[in-house]
Amino acid sequence: MIRVQNLSKKFADNIVLNGIDFEVEHGEIVVIIGPSGTGKSTLLRCLNYLEIPTSGMIEIAGVKVDSATATATQITNLRKKSSFVFQNYSLFSNKTALQNVAESLITVWKEPKSAALKHAETILRQVGLSEKINQYPSQLSGGQQQRVGIARAMAAKGEVILFDEPTSSLDPEWVDEVLAVMKQLAVQKQTMIIVTHEMQFAREVANRVIFMEGGNIVEQGTPKQIFENPQHQRTKEFVGRSA
Ligand code: ADP
Ligand code: MG
Questions:
Q1: Where does 133-227 show beta strands of DSSP type E?
Q2: What DSSP string describes 61-112?
Q3: pTM over 0.90
Q4: Distance between CA 70 and CA 64 in Å, rounded?
Q5: Which of 138, 150, 204, 223 is the most exposed place for a label (fewest CB within 10 A)?
Q6: Is 235 in the pocket of ligand 1 (CB under 6 A)?
Q7: Can you give the residue ranges of the ABC transporter domain (predicted)?
Q8: 8-state DSSP, 128
Q9: Does residue 240 have its Cβ closer than 6 Å to ligand 1?
Q10: Which amino acid residue places its CA nearest to atom 23 of ligand 1?
């Protein structure tokens, strides 16, 4: 469902992504691990064209964009195919949980407002926040805010949800409830690409783990292969440190 070919990104002279190739199947849960500064966030951001690749081709659910020939329409279409869950939630602070989730239903998907609010309420129920729909982000715990963030990504109806360290900003007490919502999405066969340091979660939930370093995919495989029998020296070191 997702195909990335020869994806490169430079910031000035800094080569952050160095000709990345990979594919993701429908319903697959891919976890990306690797040291910080390795290009994991940049990779996710390029998939959504939040960051414009320096070169390379990205195809998601039939929408294909080559950075050399990308048009505004292609980029708009590609952006609709994925949705983002950010480390820092990035909710609208002046909107309630319900309004945050309804936003894209109204503006992107043109649902009538009353239908969008009903739909948003249903999604918030799925992430366990029925009681909190009229609260503003500042009135919610970190875990609740991030569950709104996930609900908002669900509402965006992307074929794939991209998670960039979704639990890294959370107090430890809120991590499990966010991971539980992600596990529930995994059971529903929601395609997901997840950058995380939660190795236990990766072992349990990922179909595939990608180890990245220095703008390259060093190694990828099942969680068992990557965590128990890594082939590459750098993977061994990283996984050994994180265990
Ligand atoms: P990771 O998510 O693996 O920690 P990032 O993708 O955030 O890595 O960053 C990879 C490299 O790209 C880092 O060296 C970072 O400083 C650089 N970088 C990321 N975003 C920008 C930007 N907007 N401008 C300049 N350099 C950037
Ligand atoms: Mg990052």
A1: 160-164, 191-195, 208-213, 216-221
A2: TTEEEETTT--HHHHHHHHTTEEEE-TT----TTS-HHHHHHHHHHHTT---
A3: yes
A4: 9
A5: 138
A6: no
A7: 2-239
A8: T
A9: no
A10: 11
Cβ-Cβ contacts under 8 Å for 154 (sequence gap 6 or more) = 83, 123, 126, 127, 161, 185, 190
Q: How long, in residues, is the chain? A: 243
The closest residue, in CA terms, to atom 12 on ligand 1 is: 16
Nearest atom (ligand 1) to Cα of 36: 4
Residue in 32, 33, 41 to alter for ligand 1 test, most ligand atoms within 8 A of Cβ? 41
Amino acid at 193: I
Contact 184, 212 (CB under 8 A): no
* Whole-number Cα distances in Å, 147 to 144, 167, 172, 207, 220: 5, 10, 15, 23, 29
Tokens of 182: 């992600």
Q: Is the CB of 112 under 6 A from ligand 1?
A: no
Tokens of 146: 């991030």
> Tokens standing for 78?
């590609």
Per the structure block, which two tokens stand in for 105? Answer: 């239903």
Rounded CA-CA distance 1/60 in Å is: 6
C-alpha–C-alpha distance, residues 153 and 80, integer Å: 11
Q: Is residue 39 within 6 Å of ligand 1 at its C-beta?
A: yes
Indicate if ipTM > 0.95: yes
For residue 22, list its beta bridge partners. Answer: 4
Q: Are 98 and 155 in contact (CB under 8 A)?
A: no
- How far does CA 40 lie from the centroid of its chain? 11
The mean predicted confidence, pLDDT, of the chain is 95
Structural contact between residues 147 and 69, judged by C-beta atoms closer than 8 angstroms: no
